[in-house]
Each structure stands twice: as structure tokens, then as C-alpha cells.
Amino acid sequence: MEKAIKEIKEIKGFLPRSIVYAGKINEDFAEGIAGFYKAVWEEREGGISTKQKHLIVFAIACSNNNIQSAVKILERLHKFGATKTEIYDAMMLAAWTGGIQSFTDFSSVILKEMERLGY
């Protein structure tokens, strides 16, 4: 396994399916996708933290009504120590950008998952 792919396992804690699938097509393609992941998720001095990045993508997933993705990101937020208030703030931002109907669609699932995770 190439360097960028190994680094992604360390940064994300798992190997994203897109890299696995790309590797079945072409090793260089998999390395390219791994490099993209690394550029996005690696913490840089003066940049935003991994937890903050997850809060941002969580809000985007919610505002796009991508509930399945939002639930997966919520699990990552839990791992990175996001507070209940931080998650609620992200949900309110999602309602602001995605609209109240979007909020209505994703909130029941997210609140249930938060309860399962012990929030």
C-alpha cells in the first residue's frame, strides 16, 4: 500500500470506500484520491481542527438532507469530543441554510442517534 493511502488510514481512522474502489481500478487513481483526502482532513498549523471540519461537513450534510452521511459524521463528531451544544449549533445552521423543511426531515433521525450515542 502506498504512502498516501496509509496516511489516510491514520488521519481518518479507516480507509474510505472511494479509495478502496479506486484501487481496484488503478493504483495511481487510489493514491490521487488519498492525496485529496489528506489535503482536506490533515490538521495544519493555523487551520481549523478536525472536529471543526466534521462540524462543518455535518451541517452541510444536514442542510442537503443527506441523513445517512450526517449520521456517519455524527459518530465521528462523538469520537472527536464534540459537545451537544456544538452539534445543536451545527443543526441550527443547517436549518438556516437548508430550510425548515430540511431541518424537519433530518432532526428526528439525528436526535435519535444522539440519544443512542449518549448525548
What is the fold's blueprint, element by element?
Layout: H1 3-12, H2 17-25, H3 27-41, H4 50-63, H5 67-79, H6 84-98, H7 100-117
Kindly describe this structure:
This protein has 119 residues and is mainly α. It folds into two domains: 1-41, no CATH class; 48-115. It has helices at 3-12, 17-25, 27-41, 50-63, 67-79, 84-98, 100-117. The longest helix is centred in the C-terminal third of the chain and has 18 residues, at 100-117. The model has no long low-confidence stretch (mean pLDDT 91).
Helix percentage range: over 70%
- Overall shape: it is elongated
Overall pLDDT metric: 91
Radius of gyration: 16 Å
Query: Separation of termini?
Result: 38 Å
Based on secondary structure, the structural category is: mainly alpha
Q: Beta-strand percentage? A: under 5%
Tally of domains: 2
What's the number of helices? 7
Please report the total strand number as a whole number.
Answer: 0
SSE string = HHHHHHH
Could you list the spans in which at least 5 consecutive residues all have pLDDT below 50?
Answer: none
Biggest beta sheet summary? none
GO molecular function: 4-carboxymuconolactone decarboxylase activity; peroxiredoxin activity
InterPro entries: AhpD-like (IPR029032), CMD-like (IPR003779)
Protein name: 4-carboxymuconolactone decarboxylase
EC number: 4.1.1.44
Task: Write a concise keyword list for the protein shown above.
single chain, about 120 residues, mainly alpha, elongated, lyase, AhpD-like, peroxiredoxin activity
Question: Summarize this, please?
Answer:
The chain has about 120 residues and is mainly α. Helix content is about 80%, strand content about 0%.
